[in-house]
Amino acid sequence: MSHSAEYWLEALHGLGFKRPVRIMNVCGGHERTISLAGLRGAIPGNIELVPGPGCPVCICPEEDVFEAIQLALHEDIILVTFGDMLRVPVNVPKREPRSLEQARAAGGDIRPIASPSEAVRIAKENASRRVVFFAAGFETTTAPVAAMLAEGAPDNLLVLLSGRLTWPAIAMLLDSEKAGFDALIAPGHVATVMGPEEWQFVVDKHNIPAAVAGFRPDTLLAAMYSVLRQLKDGKRFLDNCYQEVVLPGGNREAQRQLNEVMQVGDANWRGVGVIPDSGFALRDSFAAHDARRHFRAYADDSRKRVGEMPPGCDCARVVLGKIYPNQCRLYGLGCTPRKPIGPCMVSDEGACRIWWSSGYRENEWEGRKKRQSVG
Amino acid sequence: MCLAVPMQIKTIDDFQCVCEARGIEREVSLFMLQGEEIGPGDFVLVHVGYAIQKVSAEDAASSWELFDEILAADA
Ligand code: SF4
Fold it and tell me: Is this complex's ipTM strictly greater than 0.85?
C-alpha cells in the first residue's frame, strides 16, 4: 500500500518536529526529483535537503579523464564512454585538449555510448582495432560493465574502469569531525543491485536514521518522514521506502558477476582524495581486458592530487554537501550548462546542473551583494 | 546515470530481449536477471541497456509520470 505525495507532505507537517535537521541524499536522481518537484519549498522550513556525493562523473579522478584523452590522441584505438564524460574538463596547459570532446575535435576517435552492449557491438564491427571503454559510474552502472565481461567480451575490447562504491564516501563523511547531516536517504537503484543492507552501518555504527527511497516524490517524502519520525521517537533503523523494487539482499546474480570480474580497493575521488575500499578494479583473471595494464605508460600518478578541480570551481565542496551549488561564486555567472566550468555543471547528475535546469537562478554571492547595495 | 527506467519485454532471444516503453523500443540484456522467471509482457527496470530488476506493471506505470517530468525539464 502506498500513499500519495500529498499524504506524506501532510504527515511531515503534522509531525511537529521543529529542530533544524539536515537530510543528505547521495544520488543525482534523488536530487533531480527534489529540485524539479520543488520539494524544498513544500516541506517544513526546519528541514534542509543536502545533495551529497551522488554524481560519479563529478568524482571520476582527473587523472583518469586525462588518461582517456591521451589514449584517444596517441594510440590507434576507438575510445567509447558514456555521453556524460565527454565534456568533463581536466587541467592542462592552454591549447591542449581539455576534454574528450576537444580531443575528438583534435582527431581522436571518441564515441559516446549509452550501454556496455554498444561497446561490444563497436568492438565486433572493428575487429582489427582496439576499443577502450572508459567506464565511470557507481554500483548500478558498474554492475552492467561486469556483466558485459562475465558474459564474454571480444578480445579487442578493453575497459578503463573508474567504478566507485557509494557507501564508503558516506562512511568517510561520518567518520570525519563534521559529517554535516543528521539523517540519510539511501540511493534506491544502488540498493536494488547491492541490497539495502549496505547502509545498515549508518544506523548501527553512527546512530543516524536512514531510509532507502525511490525516485518519485511520494517515496522520497516517505523516506523523509521515516527519518524524521526516527529522530523524534529516538528510535533508529534502516527503513526501505522502495520495497516494490529494493529486495532484501539486492540482485544477487548481479553481485556474483561483479565479484567474479572485479575486486574492491582504495580509490581516488576527484577533489576528495583516496577513500578506502571505494573503487572497483578488474581481477587478474580479466587482465586481458584491462586497459590500465595494457597502457601503463599513460597512468600518471603525479596527477593524483586532492583538489584538482578547475580553478575557481567549488565542486569538491558541492559533492561533499559542504555548500549548495549556488554558493559557488561561479554558479550561473561564469558557469552554466552551456559553458560549464566544473564537472558538477557538466553531468546530468551533478548538483549544479540539476539546480540550474530546475530553475534555481540566484547565485547566493550575487544575491548578498545586491541585498547589501539595496539595504 | 544511476536512474533506471521501467520497460516492458516484447520478445526474448537467450539473454537479449527487446523492450518497449512509451513507444520506443530498445535492445536490453537480461544477463543480470538470469535464473529469474521472466517472459514477454513482464516489466523490468532498465539501466544502461541492462535489466537490473523485475517490477510490477503498476510500479512501472507510476514511475513513468516522473520520467515524463524529467524529460520535459530537459527539453
Ligand atoms: S557552479 Fe560550476 S564552477 Fe561552481 S561548483 Fe558548480 S560546476 Fe564548479
Answer: yes
